[in-house]
């Protein structure tokens, strides 16, 4: 009986890798969902989704980029970006136009209204910092680890 129990125990141990508690992806997923949920409260006042917000952040910094560059910066594909950019254009925050040098390139430019939204968005990072209470040092460690992981995914492509 002891040998039989041991064999059964080995069989169960074999499936430990399938336990939710042993998955790195799960706390990443759950935390991401919670962070975006907290952002929603502040972004609703700006009439932006989280994805629209991060797109605007890139454009506030760069002013003008092609869709491919935006996608690379945000880890988003064109299928996700196209409707998002159309929505931002309909709100008057961006302008989409074809490149004069290469018609295949769609250029995205921030508008004056989009630039003005930047001032209203200044409150968001401060408000979010109050929602994530793990301290500056742990926040910096987590930030570094997550970007290290993103770099590894990029290398693997």
In short:
This protein has 157 residues and is mainly alpha-helical. Helix content is 67%, strand content 8%.
Characterization of the model:
This protein has 157 residues and is mostly helical. It contains eight helices and three strands. A hairpin with a 7-residue loop joins strand 2 and strand 3. Helix 2 (25-44) crosses helix 7.
What brief labels describe this structure?
157 residues, mainly alpha, Arc Repressor Mutant, subunit A, three-stranded antiparallel beta sheet, 8 helices, globular, disordered N terminus
Q: Separation of termini?
A: 50 Å
* Multimerization state: single chain
Mean pLDDT rating = 91
Low-confidence stretches: 1-6
Task: Show the helix and strand layout.
Elements: H1 2-14, H2 25-44, H3 50-62, E1 64-66, H4 67-74, H5 78-90, E2 94-98, E3 106-110, H6 112-121, H7 123-129, H8 136-156
């Amino acid at each position: 009986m002891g040998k039989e129990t041991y064999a059964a125990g080995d069989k169960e141990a074999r499936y430990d890798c399938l336990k939710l508690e042993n998955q790195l992806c799960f706390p990443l997923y759950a935390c991401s969902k919670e962070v975006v949920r907290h952002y929603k409260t502040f972004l609703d006042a700006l009439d932006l989704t989280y994805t629209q917000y991060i797109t605007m952040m890139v454009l506030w910094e760069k002013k003008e980029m092609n869709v491919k560059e935006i996608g690379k910066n945000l880890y988003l594909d064109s299928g996700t970006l196209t409707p998002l950019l159309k929505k931002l254009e309909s709100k008057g925050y961006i302008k989409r136009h074809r490149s004069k040098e290469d018609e295949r390139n769609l250029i995205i430019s921030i508008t004056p209204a989009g630039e003005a939204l930047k001032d209203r968005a200044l409150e968001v990072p401060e408000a979010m910092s109050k929602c994530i209470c793990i301290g500056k040092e742990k926040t910096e460690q987590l930030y570094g680890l997550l970007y290290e992981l993103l770099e590894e995914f990029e290398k693997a492509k």
